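Um, can you check?
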Amino acid sequence: MKKAIKISEVTERHRIEKVLRQSENLYQSLFDNMLNGFAYCRMHFDQDDNPADFTYIAVNSAFERLTGLKDVVGRKVSDVIPGIREADPGLIRLYGRVSKGSPPEKFEMFVESLKMWFSISVYCPRKGYFVAIFDVITERKMAEENLRQTHDYLENLLNYANAPIIVWNPELIITRFNHAFKHLTAYGSDEVIGKKLDILFPGQSRPDSIMQIAKTSVGERWESVEIPILRKDGGVRIALWNSATLYSADGKTVIATIAQGQDITDRKKAEESQAQIISILEATPDFVAMTDAHDGHYIYINKAGRNIAGIGTGEDVTKYKISDFHPEWSNKLYATEILPTASKEGVWSGECAFLSRGGKEIPTHMVQLSHKDPNGEVGMFSTISRDISDRKIIVEQLQKSLSDLKRSNTELEQFAYVASHDLQEPLRMVASFTQLLAKKYGDKLDPEALEFIRFAVDGATRMQVLINDLLEYSRVGTWGKPFEPVDCHTVLENARNNLQASLDNCHGHITYGFLPVVRADQSQLLRLFQNLIDNSLKFHGDQPPQIHISAEM
């Protein structure tokens, strides 16, 4: 019985030993074939109980493969990796701390002495010892660094690009935008990030803008799409946008849209201004054109210019040159004076001529301007010409009228001279004989007759003054004598005496108040008074005319 029990115990012991060997072999196989490096080490402390070194007790095959270190078991790390205590003191301290029983730690560290990155898990199996399970992550770290650098590069590219850039998700929520977009909208990041895109669009154009943006949610790309942007201050800027759609890993699911814009507000204003200028040029009746300064071909001719030159509405003006629409003498003027002057001084103006398609020469008054390119060279000429055919005809007619008037004036001056000269003698005879009559028969005439003789003598004398003035006019060819002080009272009395017969016939009466002394031609002033009084006497009602003359100073 005892023998049977003993045999049974031996059998059980063999079985247990076999199981243990199998387990040991299994764990050894696991240990040797681990992908991670394994190191079981004993920590060494200095006299101050600070970690100073450690000895490798056991390592697996992955240790050698990952670190490149061989035959390390039983050796101190300071011997295996010279300089590690100086280069990586933090690693030694960390292992020392854990080996004293501190909780396990997991960390990533760059080991300077090996020039490698490690991901390490360390724990304490018993006091004074530690186990480090690690993986070399240098490639991953390098990839992460490259990724970080790429990210930083893209981040800087995005943030500091001159063009405004904005990103939104499929729900049309703004996720980010760059500095140029801030400048475009005057919004800060905290005012926009996380908000709906519609806050960036003016009310009137908002529906159209949202419709355009909705298309990007299904993968449609923008190419030069014009969308107005509402600024924080209420202003509106016009931007031209291009977009790209970002997909998830399946290549189908839209995760974001990025759009890059170009502020074209100033360009739009310039285009509108240019369109207004063109509309004005098209409406003007003058010939307006622009030509290339290098080859002389027309770049633009307005409607009036095409009509003058005989160019059809749809005809290409660029095939024509300046010389095609000018007569030979005008082309010579262009070559020798017009273009050289305009190029040097910026402008030339004067008379020129066009040659219509029918060969008719059209006189014009032309202004030629030169325009310089950014290099300071004349790159373009502009021409403004006005058809002066009618003006030429009017000038010729005026010249003929002036010539006729000059001849008529000459004849009138000659007539006035002859008439005034020939009237002198009869008038002198009338005055002389009237005075002789008064002298010889004065004692036989009653007072009324003597007064009549005096009237006749005074009239003849005044008439002689007028004739002398007319003779003077005919001699000097002027409209009057040089001005001199004239007493208006005296002139008015002379005018009344000259018109006494007319006053008596209509029973008119003249009164006058204050009249000054003025600088004038006495004969002309006399004729002025006579004409005014004579008109009053001619054109009056049933009552006798009452004429009053005065002056205010």
